[in-house]
């Protein structure tokens, strides 16, 4: 069964450093998403991406965040200068279509900012 | 405003019993709802979904009920098994947006 994969599973970084979280969405999916989950809290939407551009983003997704689909398979989330409060689980998701369609989630990357 | 909340943060049931997990949503513009299961250290796993033109949808051992009048969603799990132990999230999808809005989650604990 096709699945969303993410690397690394755990990333530890120093405050102020740049990190890139990587995702490989399901191959025939056209819509891609990043969500985050701070420990013990609910899952929060960050950004959606379709047709090589951001279709929607939340207030969390400020200028420190960017997304990219550098090739036909990868989807990345970059945080330019990490802050302590960026520590969270980051989930990538993908769907065949947009609104009203099941989003398949990856296993997540745990980001720890020291 | 946008909010999806859960009434019970923790639900403990005995193996073999039925479980009911509840969710309240506040946005009448939502037309698609999903229940996800999240096991420790893993990503959300799709369980079942329902569109706003339906009141009930059944899957294997799971049933989702939607009451649009009171903006209430529930997940029923029949013959709960130890493998059902996890945190369950409801999520809503508003019309004209791709993002999912998640609730706070209910932890389901199944005892033998």
* Secondary-structure class of chain B: mainly beta
- Termini Cα gap of chain A: 37 Å
Could you estimate the helical fraction of the residues of chain A in percent?
under 10%
How much is the radius of gyration of chain B in Å? Answer: 13 Å
Tell the overall outline of chain B: globular
String of helices and strands of chain B: EEEEEEEEEEE
Major sheet of chain B: size, sense and barrel closure? Answer: 6 strands, mixed
* Gross geometry of chain A: globular
Strand content of chain A: over 45%
Structure description:
The complex is a heterodimer of chains A (114) and B (112). Chain A is mostly beta strands and 114 residues long. Chain A is built from no helices and eleven strands. Chain A has strands at 5-7, 10-13, 19-24, 31-37, 44-50, 53-57, 65-68, 75-79, 88-95, 104-105, 109-113. In chain A, the strands form two sheets. In chain A, strands 2, 4, 5, 6, 9, 10 and 11 form a seven-stranded mixed β-sheet that branches. In chain A, strands 1-3-8-7 form a four-stranded antiparallel β-sheet, with no helix packed on it. In chain A, a hairpin with an 8-residue loop joins strand 9 (88-95) and strand 10. Chain A starts with a strand and ends with a strand. Chain B has 112 residues and is an all-beta fold. Chain B is built from no helices and eleven strands. In chain B, the strands form two sheets. In chain B, strands 2, 4, 5, 9, 10 and 11 form a six-stranded mixed β-sheet that branches. A five-stranded antiparallel β-sheet of chain B has the order 1-3-8-7-6, with no helix packed on it. In chain B, a hairpin with a 4-residue loop joins strand 7 (62-67) and strand 8 (72-77). The chains are: A mainly beta (114), B mainly beta (112). The interface between A and B is medium-sized, with 27 and 27 residues.
């Amino acid at each position: 069964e096709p699945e969303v994969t993410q690397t690394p599973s755990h990333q530890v970084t120093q405050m102020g450093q740049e990190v890139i979280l990587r995702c490989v969405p399901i191959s025939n999916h056209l819509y891609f998403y990043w969500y985050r989950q701070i420990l013990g809290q609910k899952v929060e939407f960050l950004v959606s991406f379709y047709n090589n551009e951001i279709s929607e983003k939340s207030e969390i997704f400020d200028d420190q965040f960017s997304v990219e689909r550098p090739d036909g398979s990868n989807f990345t989330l970059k945080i330019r200068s990490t802050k302590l409060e960026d520590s969270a689980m980051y989930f990538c998701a993908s769907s065949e279509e947009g609104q009203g369609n099941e989003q398949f989630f990856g296993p997540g990357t745990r980001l720890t900012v020291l | 405003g946008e909010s999806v909340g859960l009434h019970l943060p923790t639900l403990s049931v005995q193996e073999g019993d039925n479980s009911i997990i509840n969710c309240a949503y506040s946005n009448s513009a939502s037309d698609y709802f999903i229940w996800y299961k999240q096991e420790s250290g893993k990503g959300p796993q799709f369980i079942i979904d329902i569109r706003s033109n339906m009141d009930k949808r059944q899957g294997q051992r799971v049933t989702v009920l939607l009451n649009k009048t009171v903006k209430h969603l529930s997940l029923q799990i029949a013959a709960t098994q130890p493998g059902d132990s996890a945190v369950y999230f409801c999520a809503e999808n508003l019309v004209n947006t791709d993002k999912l809005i998640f609730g706070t989650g209910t932890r389901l604990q199944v005892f033998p």
